[in-house]
Design goal:
Chain A: GO terms for molecular function: ATP binding; enzyme regulator activity. The complex is a heterodimer of chains A (112) and B (448). Chain A is α+β, with helices and mostly antiparallel strands. Chain A has helices spanning 13-23, 67-81, and strands spanning 2-8, 29-35, 42-46, 49-53, 56-65, 89-95. Chain B has a single domain, classed as Ammonium transporter fold, CATH 1.10.3430.10. Chain B has helices at residues 2-11, 17-42, 50-77, 110-128, 138-161, 166-170, 178-196, 212-231, 241-268, 273-290, 296-313, 316-320, 328-346, 365-395, 402-407, 409-414, 430-434, 441-447, and strands at residues 80-81, 85-86. Chain B is globular. Classes of the chains: A alpha+beta (112), B mainly alpha (448).
Chain lengths: 112, 448
């Protein structure tokens, strides 16, 4: 199994959710996150005092998938998240040792 | 017979129901300015000190109201002594005032005048609190207000507005409180912060306003309340001066807001919300002393100059290193000085008094008087406030501890937080906090 994690622009969430559903993903976890990449943050001005705000709002989407679906799923997420502008985010995958469905105790791919 | 009575009555002013009603409404409008100020300031601080900021303004409604009735009105508007303060035993506790007794020379009851002036006395110390955000013990602040209004505000109000007060007799024009309210509060703020010092993290940590919508709400309500503050200060509306003041208040505020925004756009590249709110307040401050003596076009000029200069002045704290947290000095002191001095240029001689400013052929005379008013109140308030702060700081301590300041003054001083961030679904602590804490064992022994 693989854990796919995507840190993307908040306003792309709906597109990504729809694309994942179309792909057949059963469940996902969404967290509000903040961070920056190459674009860094932005500047805000309050009565002449300038503040550099490094961390910009992002959302973090996590999905568990079977190994053979992982590459294709990454492509689906990237396609749905892309706006072509700076700050679109990152997607990565890591191997997962096991997963358990809490209600039934099913393990491995059955738990997805 | 009937005409004889009318003639007799015309000699002395009679109670005017219209003016009395108008002044009661104006008083209520000015009262609203203090909670409005609380929100204006409250939105500008960080989440962790929102309630303290609201409370520092709000407590003034409690303390000053009581002091005003006890002796404040007597000191400010009682019979003059040595041109410095007043005293009338009838005014102590407002005990010897008849229901229909009129304020001397006007058509409104003394009670109405007293309550209108009370609202000015309440908002003035509240204005100071913006400079002290995040770091002052609430008890120390309450004591400061008590001493400050007694030693500074009540006498200064007498100097400026009281019959026999030395600035009043000299001919200094302060229509609605540029000197007595704004310069007074701004100089006091500077005096106190020079004593108590900077917030932990000043110039290092970001201290961004936590809610600009609250700031805008506060500024909007201040603008609204200010019509009572300014238009009411003629104490009636029989001759149209109050109406001119109403118009001037509106146009100067608009001009100041636009000037502040223009400066920001040129200097920093954006039109900010805080700039619009601040510019409006700067305009209101500046037109307060001057609006009764100038024309609407003069008011536009006064507002624009004040908006520009105040926008430039708020940066001075970074240059000189004093932590005027919410720019009380930059907006109220500078705005008050600008407005008071501009009377010396823009007074037309045709509205509030015959005194003419430089631009209307009056020479430098009025400007000189205004300067004396500005700098005497500024110096007295600055020095007296610094001494009061020093005394309180040496005895009970003016500031909360550094740890408490960093963790947030709301919880330390008020045992509350402004917002519940535990999120949807409820926090995990709801059950444990609902159960009262068990009494300490020592107490149990005492009870038994």
């Amino acid at each position: 199994m693989k854990l796919i994690t995507a840190v993307v622009k908040p306003h792309r969430l709906d597109e990504i959710k729809d694309a994942l559903q179309a792909f057949g993903v059963q469940g996902l976890t969404v967290t509000e996150a903040s961070g920056y990449g190459r674009q860094r943050g932005h500047t805000e001005v309050y009565r002449g005092a300038e503040y550099t705000v490094d961390l910009v709002p992002k959302i973090r989407i996590e999905v568990l998938v079977e190994d053979e679906d992982a590459e294709q799923l990454i492509d689906v997420v990237v396609k749905a998240a892309r706006t072509g502008k700076i700050g679109d985010g990152k997607v990565w995958s890591v191997p997962v040792e096991t997963a358990v469905r809490v209600r039934t105790g099913e393990r491995g791919p059955d738990a997805l | 017979m009937a005409s004889a009575i009318t003639t007799l009555a015309a000699d002395a002013p009679a109670l005017s129901a219209a003016n009395t009603g108008f002044m009661l409404i104006c008083s209520a409008l000015v009262m609203l300015m203090t909670p409005a100020l609380a929100f204006f300031y409250g939105g500008m601080v960080r989440v962790k000190s929102t309630l303290n900021m609201l409370m520092m303004s709000f407590i003034s409604l409690g303390i000053v109201t009581i002091l005003w009735v006890l002796y404040g009105f007597s000191i400010a508007f009682g019979t003059d002594s040595a041109s410095l303060f007043g005293w009338s035993s009838d005014y102590v506790g407002l005990s010897g005032i008849g229901l229909t007794e009129l304020w001397d020379g006007y058509t409104i009851p003394v009670y109405v005048f007293a309550v209108f002036q009370l609202m000015f006395a309440i908002i003035t110390p509240a204005l100071i609190s913006g400079a002290l955000a995040d770091r002052v013990k609430f008890t120390a602040w309450a004591l400061f207000i008590t001493l400050w209004v007694t030693i500074v505000y009540f006498p200064v109000a007498h100097w400026v507005w009281g019959t026999g007060g030395w600035l009043f007799e000299m001919g200094v024009i302060d229509f609605a409180g540029g000197t007595a309210v704004h310069i007074n509060a701004g100089a006091a703020a500077l005096g106190v912060i020079l004593v108590i010092g900077k917030r932990v993290g000043f110039k290092k940590d970001p201290m961004r306003p936590h809610s600009l919508p609250l700031v805008m709400l506060g500024a909007g309500l201040l603008w609204f309340g200010w019509f009572g503050f300014n238009a009411g200060s003629w104490l009636g509306n029989d001759d149209g001066v109050g109406a001119v003041m109403f118009v001037n208040t509106q146009v100067a505020t608009a001009a100041a807001m636009l000037a502040w925004l223009a400066y920001e756009k040129l200097r920093h590249g954006s039109f900010t919300t805080l700039g619009a709110a601040s510019g409006a307040v700067a305009g209101l401050v500046a037109i307060t002393p001057s609006g009764g003596s100038c024309s609407p076009l003069g008011a536009i000029a006064i507002g624009a100059v004040a908006g520009l200069l105040c926008a430039m002045a708020v940066g001075l704290k970074y240059k000189f290193g004093y932590d005027d947290s919410l720019d009380v000095v930059g907006v109220h002191l500078v705005g008050g000085v600008v407005g008071s001095l501009l009377v010396g240029f823009f007074a037309t001689g045709g509205v509030q008094s015959d005194a003419k400013g430089l631009f209307y052929g009056g020479g430098l005379d009025q400007l000189g008087k205004q300067a004396i008013g500005v700098f005497s109140v500024l110096a007295y308030s600055l020095i007296a406030s610094a001494i009061l702060a020093l005394i309180i700081d040496k005895t009970m301590g003016m500031r909360v501890s550094e740890d408490d300041e960093i963790s947030g003054i709301d919880q330390v001083e008020h045992a509350e937080t402004a917002y519940d961030f535990s999120g949807a679904g409820g926090g995990s602590s709801s059950r444990s906090t609902a159960v009262p804490a068990p009494a300490p064992t020592e107490n149990k022994k005492v009870d038994a």
